[in-house]
Amino acid sequence: MPRKSRITLKEIEHLAWLARVQLTKREKRLFKEQLSSILEYFDKLDEANVEELPPTFHVVEHYNVFREDEPRPFPSDIVLKNPPKMKGRFIKAPRIV
Amino acid sequence: MVGDGVKIGLEVHCQLTSLKTKLFCSCPTDYRGKPPNTNICPVCMGEPGTLPVLNKEAVRAAVMVALALHSKISRFTYFTRKNYFYPDMAKNFQISQYDGVGGAPIAKGGYVDLGNGKVVRIRRLQLEEDPARLVYEGTIDTATATLVDYNRHGVALIEIVTEPDITSPEDARRFLQKLRSILEHLGVFDGELEGSMRCDANISLEGGVRVEIKNISSYKDVERALRFEITRQSSLISRGIRVVRETRFWDERRRVTVSLRVKETEEDYRYFPEPDLPPVVITDEFIDEVKRSLPILPDERKRIFVEKYGVSEQNAEVLVNDKALADFFEDCLKHYGKAQELSNLLVGDFLAQLHSLNLSVREVKVKPEYIAKLLRLLDKKVLTGHLAKAVLREMLETGRDPEAIVEEKGLRRIGSREELEKIVDRVFRENRKAVEDALVNEKAVHFLVGQVMRITRGKADPNLTRQIIKNKLEKVRASRKA
Amino acid sequence: MNPLLYPAEKVASAVRNGELSALDYLEAVLERLKHVEPKLNAFITVTEELARRKAENIDRRVEKGLKVGKLAGVVVAVKDNICVKGVETTCGSRILKGYRPSYNATVVERLMAEDAVIIGKTNMDEFAMGSSTEFSAYGPTRNPWDLERVPGGSSGGSGAAVASGEATLALGSDTGGSVRCPAAFCGVVGLKPTYGLVSRYGLVAYANSLEQIGPMARNVGDCALLLSVIAGYDPRDSTSLKVQPMDYQTKLTDPPELEKLRIGVIKEFMGEGVQEGVRERVWNAVQSLENLGARVGEVSLKSLDYALAAYYIIAMSEASSNLARYDGLRYGFRSSDQGLDWNRAYAKTRRMGFGEEVKRRIILGTFALSAGYYEAYYLKALKVRTLIRMEFEKAFKKFDVLVGPSMPMTAFKIGEKIEDPLELYMCDINTVPANLVGIPAISVPCGLSDGLPVGLQVMAPPLREDLVFKVAYAYERTGKWMFQLKP
Ligand SMILES: [Zn+2]
Questions:
Q1: Residues whose CB is under 5 A from ligand 1 (ion)?
Q2: Which CATH architecture has domain B417-481?
Q3: What is the pTM of this model?
């Protein structure tokens, strides 16, 4: 029996756009198949009776972790060694429109 | 009529400028005037492996704002990632807050009273990181590259989202002014700092669709941008062209909104709770403590101005809408007891002259006692209203004592009947045609008064002058009849 | 005894006493490294000069009679997703090629403060996404026991380095088993600590709510020593726990006291999917523990059936957001973007910079968080996480520790599972629960199956690292397993 595809090529393209990852034609087709079977496996969770349970966002229950408002300047020149493209002290990005 | 059925909602972003460090890292916030990318560190540059740590004072400041806006403070709040790519975001997500599954903003509800009978409801308040500053080589739609300065990236913002309760561009401006005044009264915000308050507006006209305008960076511009947009949309509607739902960009240099031509696809921010930041629990004790430390706020201050000092409602509203002006008013009041007269001067000539000099109240160098002196010079009729204006201008430009200005420039009122009669005689001689007009037309008298003022450089007492001219005209009439 | 086989503590004490020069020891390790590295590819970067300078500095201080740290002269390999200031940190990805962190990870600072000698950055699955170290942009690492096989992953480089004597100790990171899997496959000890015990500051995030940096070593004592150095509260990590630092090594009593310790064997870990040889070795190990006085019982955790799906949904969702920052602007690789607007430029840089598995997980994570699917996937997975936590809490009322195989199989052949992502994900079935629940879990070698190492996994309640060490140490002391240098 041919496996029903859970995800369409169009959806893969939309997700790739949202994630700003260009995919090749081969990758799109491959991902469509692979993601469909992975999502099918994820359906396992539908069997779990968890509607009433609260979600666990953090495994450790602590809260109100703060930092005092005291400035600690960082030597910016070290950070500026990394950007591949600069103009003066500006970091260069591609055009917007 | 143009402007009918307008609905405006604002998303205002205010930097919490009282904080010494950014929202999630210890970089100092004093970036203004510094070279690009100076106040940066691995955290706000989104270097791999870095983690955010919440600035304690940001929470306190946000709670203060919430209390001042009558909002309901969440007892349990947390940060949410808003995922979207843009070159002003070091991590390509913004640590923000969100009202929905996976979010709980620091406060919801509340309102701002515009003081003109209108109230704007607040939808929510949230803390978030300021994006970086983008510099376009040219304009946004023609630049071939974008330059990024991360100095302000990560500075704490409080976002204040209103309901679409605002019905005119003027009220939008009024709202921002009032908001600024409230935040300045709280001491968490300084509107004078460049770029400290920015907003996005969404606007719809009767029967139209919602258009979002981004990149509005002052409360003066909010009015301009919205006016432009109302004109643009109503002209489209009147020509039978459909207004499209879109995001537009306010170009403050050209003073137009331009379409950003964003892709058709709907934004999908994929909100989820920031795993690197534990939730914040705000206790009643904390709220009470903040409440007790709350300074006096504009609405309360207005009440005091009206009830205790006897200032008119209208003047009081103008005064408290600018914290610096209200402070100045109270300073002056210590030297001059007639509150209403004082307020008249401040909300009238004083503000008007500041405006024409392009100065803010805080830039004023005039000592409060000099304002008091000026008012007393008026009271003693040493100065006419007209002269007072000139003296005030000189005071604002130089900060000098009004008495010294009066002495030096001889700006005293000419109140002697004898002296003025001589000048009127001269005016009558030199303006025969005008005198003829004035004999039959009451309005032409005004011209003659003006001539006296011109000759005396405004020093003539206007009432006395008018009286002398009328008497003289009467005499002419009588002599003709005879 | 060959100094290369000295336990870390002995290296440190010998260096401290002036019996062993830190530089001599380093040179011996470097020689070993040069010999085996061409076969293993365990390192992405070897920081030979940096290491020499550190060793010389230690020797000088010893000579002058100055104080040296707990790890004086001990050679430590650091996984390439842990930031060392100024040293290229790639996470096994092309997209971080050339990135030199402007800061040290907290664990690295702590290593340096205790005078460890950092020898280099180890190979890994790209961004720790994998269980075999095959998904590295810098080529796969090979298992020292069988060069045709994978060392496990994603900390495969760290596992191989420790197993082969390229380092005394190593740091790995464990998001869903990435320390325990290579520990099991390479025959070394590896611990995933309690969530929040070790600072994540400087660990390049894959899935923040699941991962911890973990120590890897040749024996339990070394593993405990390394944990003692790296554990503890860090104000730079808001999820870090405010616990008093503990000397885990001194908790290891000799002879070990297992009387009355209740050990629960997780039924679901011993079922059908487990290789026969693995199951046998693990039962034998449990038997040994029982012989030492432990009370053994079986426990069933039904919710474990959902663990793997929940784990992958959470991990991929968080990853899709964490990896958004790699756009070529601030660090690492940037493709040529002449004429492209920012959208296209980003998409191109990310196409060229990321490998296939990373793209797969980013796309899936994006899907799981997107409008309309968030509640069905991400939120559901977090609720399942609650369910699993509750079941573990219940089990820990009856048992002090829970045990089972770390991996359901021994090291598989390179390329064997690379075509089918789901099959590869299935390998993590026994390791992911500890990450979902946030509890400590160790993998300790418990024998060979067909000539390949098998790992026994021991889990305990939060912050009971002392318990997992105690059990692992007790087993180690039976002498049924002795560390062997490979290849
Ligand atoms: Zn910073």
A1: B 25, 27, 41, 43-44
A2: Orthogonal Bundle (1.10)
A3: 0.93
